[in-house]
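Standup notes, structure subgroup. Blocker cleared on the zinc ion input:
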Amino acid sequence: MPELSAEQVDQVQAKLHQVGLEFRPLEDEFLDHLCCAIEQNMGAGMTFAEAEKSAFAAFGEDEMKKLESETISIINKNSNSMKNMLVSLAAGLLLVLVTFISLKAEPPYLSPVPGDFKISSGFGWRVHPIFKEKKMHKGIDIPAPLGTDIVATSAGVVEEAGFSEKGYGYYVLIRHDDHYQSLYGQMTSDLQVEAGQKVKAGELIGYVGSSGRSTAPHLHYEVILDGEHVDPQEYMGM
Ligand SMILES: [Zn+2]
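Run returned:
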């Protein structure tokens, strides 16, 4: 694992300072975690500039400010004698959570339908149930009761959310990073996200439906790597 030079740490600190956090102990904690994330990114082959950009993007300025206000409110609810201990505890716990989320931001790794599920149609060539012709199935089908929760399989930004004439029915397309996207189709019209919105891993995005080219309630789920469809089963429960 590469280690940051003192100059690079100073640079990260200056950039972090621009976020405008007022709570010093938390800023120190963030610096520690950001530097750690940058070193990991560099270990994965990024330049320092790329690694820094990616680490800041993963943490997010809004997220840092939100954590700051949450931490302060936790502290304010408690007595002064407990203050110092709580400061480090709260900051530590919240940051472990953020680090966990940001490290898991790529690629998709969760099951899009929480709990037990089976797959009725796998990835690859199959005879289409309606058109009876041999067709490439670009994803997997997970049958589930109408209204079952569908969650984002990794953190990302919603690229598209709406109705598709191409057979997906109501669908959501999420971009996770420069390489990975995931698509959820055949949903009910009650989509829980809109284009441009940031989502966390495991966040509710909509419900299992039977819209579009569908014979029974199920989720059609795709994982796309650099524009090519890959088998989603290889990206579940990693
Ligand atoms: Zn399908």
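Discussed briefly. The first helix runs from residue 6 to 19.
Next: hand off to the docking folks.
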